[in-house]
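Side project, low priority. Logging it here so it doesn't get lost.
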Amino acid sequence: MAQRVLVVDDDRTVSDVVCRYLEHAGYEVGHVGDGLAALDAVREHPPHLVVLDLMLPGLDGLQVCRRLRERPDGVPIIMLTARGDEADRVLGLQLGADDYLGKPFSPRELVLRVASVLRRAGEPPAPAAEVFVDAGLEVATGPRVARLHGRELTLTLREFDLLAHLMRHPARAFRRAELLDRVWGWSFGDESTVTVHVRRLREKIEADPAAPRRIVTVWGVGSRYQPADA
């Protein structure tokens, strides 16, 4: 069965092109033009991924993203934005978008991004699932569950993969480009995506996100996971 992608964009020209490219790539594609219709469509026929425009009539893309993140199924979201303000893109990532593209964009690149996000979301657990434990933080890659002092954490797809990757290589510093390649599977892209996800993880696992002790910054290099007993 083809994977279903819901495109949410009120620009008919853009949405027609996006839908056509996705259909040619083998996806089942639905389209709506406003935020409330998007929430109804997700509820009635849950998609495998949502391509979500930031600027929508009525309920905007950020509000839609926030409401979708309240759902237990964790549907992946790729956000489209015509705004030049980086703060809007960062806010979208902070609300749980898995990726974003700025308009104008290449439809071929969007199809590649969709395939990358869906591949990550659908990857089966490794035969020998890993469990990482450190100072009350437990990450199990098989069931994809993370707990802090026994409380299950709400992590997006990318947040979980990023945390697991860092804990898999304790005390090793990674450049943002390396993390973009190893966690996102991209050989190109906006490295600020990594910065935002690191910040979000700190907000969820650090006692004091402003003074992180688990995911620390290595100046001039990038980030590393620092085990408590190191």
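Brief comment: The longest strand covers residues 4-8.
Revisit when time allows.
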